[in-house]
């Protein structure tokens, strides 16, 4: 069923077309009336040309241009344009004879001066056809550009949604992985009824708050990430007791510096999970500083040569998150040699 809006749109288009062709008729009467005082002749001649002009124009703008020129079928466009020109030229020739035979009673001198010339009559007709066709091409081009922009916008929106879903999926993997390691540590302390258990629960509650409520934000303060890294380190210190030597240094940390949440913590977690004791000690060294609008993060821990820490879930996820959030804005180097597992991360333009 046709909607009221659609009907009104069609009526508006009809009115616009009628007004345009009335304007063309006025142009014809003015053009062919030059040096002629016979208004009746000029009007009749112009009215005879109108169906030829309308038909030729509509054939071009509704058939030949959309179906052959726009679709780049140039051979057919040229062929059908030639057909249209031949037929319209024949009809224009008839209009000249109409003016001579019916309007002037075979008296060449009684014809309006411009209507005597087949060339000038054809120019008048094809001028209208060319102008309308050019307007149609411009309209089609604008519509194509608009459709292209809409399509590009939809593609970008789809890509963004896919990236958001992938990021959420990666975060979902990090959450249980991190929680499993921490709760496993706490379980051991609870079995031993250690005095440090309440403090561990407090540290874990802070981490859970960060994990559950802050991690969904696009960015968090770098100071928040550092604070929760310290909480995690304190938890690990309780677990390792005297078998851990850790050094965490931070320098030139600006308050306005923001990063993606849980970006650095998985590196720290990985160093504890896959690190190996050497001479009864697990050594972890962490350095974090900002310089020239870049963040530098290095972490190294003692490990065995065959330790597969670079294949852990945490590191694998963090690499994917870096590609999604900091594409072409970071460098990450990971190596495991000479008994040390090292990570070097640089983030550009973190402020």
UniProtKB/TrEMBL annotation:
Q: Which UniProt keywords apply?
A: Kinase, Membrane, Transferase, Transmembrane, Transmembrane helix
Is Transmembrane among the key words of this record? yes
Domain named Signal transduction histidine kinase internal region: residues: 166-243
User: What domain of life does the UniProt record list for this protein's source?
Assistant: Bacteria
The GO cellular component terms are:
membrane
Q: Which Gene3D superfamilies match?
A: Histidine kinase-like ATPase, C-terminal domain
One annotated GO molecular function is: phosphorelay sensor kinase activity
User: A Pfam family name for this chain?
Assistant: His_kinase
Which residue ranges traverse the bilayer?
12-33, 39-62, 74-98, 118-138
Query: Any keyword Nucleus?
Result: no
Name of the molecule in the record: Histidine kinase
């Amino acid at each position: 069923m046709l909607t009221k809006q659609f009907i009104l749109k069609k009526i508006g288009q009809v009115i616009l077309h009628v007004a345009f062709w009335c304007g063309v008729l006025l142009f014809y009467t003015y053009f062919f009336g030059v040096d002629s005082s016979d208004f009746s002749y000029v009007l009749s001649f112009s009215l005879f040309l109108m169906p030829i002009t309308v038909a030729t124009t509509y054939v071009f703008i509704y058939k030949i241009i959309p179906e052959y020129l726009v679709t780049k079928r140039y051979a057919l466009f040229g062929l059908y344009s030639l057909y249209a020109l031949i037929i319209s030229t024949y009809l224009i020739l008839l209009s000249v004879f109409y003016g001579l035979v019916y309007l002037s009673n075979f008296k060449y001198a009684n014809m309006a001066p411009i209507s005597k010339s087949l060339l000038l009559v054809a120019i008048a007709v094809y001028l209208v056809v060319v102008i309308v066709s050019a307007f149609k091409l411009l309209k089609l081009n604008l519509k194509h550009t608009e459709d292209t922009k809409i399509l590009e916008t939809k593609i970008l929106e789809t890509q963004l949604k896919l990236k958001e879903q992938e990021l959420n999926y990666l975060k979902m993997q990090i959450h249980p992985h991190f929680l499993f390691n921490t709760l496993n540590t706490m379980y051991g302390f609870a079995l031993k009824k250690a005095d440090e258990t309440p403090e561990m629960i407090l540290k874990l509650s802070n981490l859970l708050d960060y994990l559950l409520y802050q991690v969904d934000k696009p960015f968090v303060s770098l100071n928040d990430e550092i604070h929760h890294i310290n909480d995690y380190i304190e938890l690990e210190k309780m677990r390792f007791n005297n078998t851990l030597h850790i050094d965490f240094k931070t320098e030139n940390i600006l308050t306005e510096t923001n990063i993606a949440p849980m970006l650095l913590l998985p590196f720290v977690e990985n160093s504890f999970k896959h690190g190996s004791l050497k001479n009864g000690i697990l050594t972890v060294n962490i350095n974090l500083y900002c310089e020239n609008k870049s963040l530098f993060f290095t972490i190294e821990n003692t490990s065995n040569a065959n330790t597969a820490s670079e294949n852990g879930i945490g590191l694998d996820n963090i690499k994917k998150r870096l590609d999604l959030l900091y594409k072409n804005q970071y460098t990450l180097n990971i190596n495991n040699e000479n008994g040390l597992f090292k990570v070097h991360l640089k983030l550009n333009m973190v402020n």
